[in-house]
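Example for tutorial group B:
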């Protein structure tokens, strides 16, 4: 049923407000600022540990640990959005979806890489189009390939607007990096909260069950 509803949404078309998405994401952040910041600090610290002391295993971190770590923001955002109490372990629930999340990140990155190597533009297209793939797997129950395809088809409807959103998020994180990296403690969770907000607003009727 969800797939049929998604197809209807894609065929009908939609729009979204970037400013409104940032406002809602900021409210999600303010609902759990300490947990959001401390979890981000943990992720960045582990990443730095690999880069500095475990360079030979950095790729393994990027493939096996980073995807479920970052996916935790979506699950925490979902609980906040449903007015449910959130505790620190909720952010680690991305590991409950380890196989589909890792598969999506790995296959998505490979396809994007080849797209960039071959013609650049296809790679940029896929990088943006796969933005909802992890969310499709977690909240839609899709396997990794159907999640990638569902994300691509849905985002393609308003691809240029999502491309603009991606640029905004990149600039936001770059500015966060300039503040001695401390700004990332806010911009990183905000990046995932903004993505979640837009996904939730667009698919709340599709995945209501």
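The residue assignment follows.
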């Amino acid at each position: 049923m969800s797939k049929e509803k998604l197809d209807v949404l894609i065929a009908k078309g939609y729009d979204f407000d970037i400013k409104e998405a940032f406002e809602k994401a900021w409210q999600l952040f303010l609902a759990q600022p300490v947990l959001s910041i401390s979890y981000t600090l943990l992720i960045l610290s582990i990443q730095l540990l690999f880069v500095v002391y475990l360079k030979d295993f950095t790729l393994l971190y990027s493939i096996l640990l980073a995807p479920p770590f970052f996916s935790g923001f979506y699950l925490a955002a979902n609980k906040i959005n449903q007015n449910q109490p959130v505790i620190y372990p909720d952010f680690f629930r991305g590991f409950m979806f380890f196989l589909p999340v890792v598969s999506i990140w790995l296959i998505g990155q490979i396809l994007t890489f080849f797209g960039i190597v071959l013609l650049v533009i296809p790679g940029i297209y896929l990088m943006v189009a796969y933005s909802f793939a992890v969310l499709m797997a977690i909240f839609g129950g899709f396997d990794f390939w159907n999640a990638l395809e569902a994300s691509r088809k849905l985002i393609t409807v308003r691809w240029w607007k999502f491309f603009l959103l991606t640029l905004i998020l990149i600039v936001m994180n770059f500015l966060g990096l300039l503040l001695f990296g401390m700004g990332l403690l806010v911009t990183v969770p905000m990046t995932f909260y903004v993505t979640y907000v837009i996904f939730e607003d667009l698919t709340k009727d599709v995945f209501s069950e």
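The longest helix spans residues 58-81. Compare this with the pattern of hydrophobic and polar residues in the output above.
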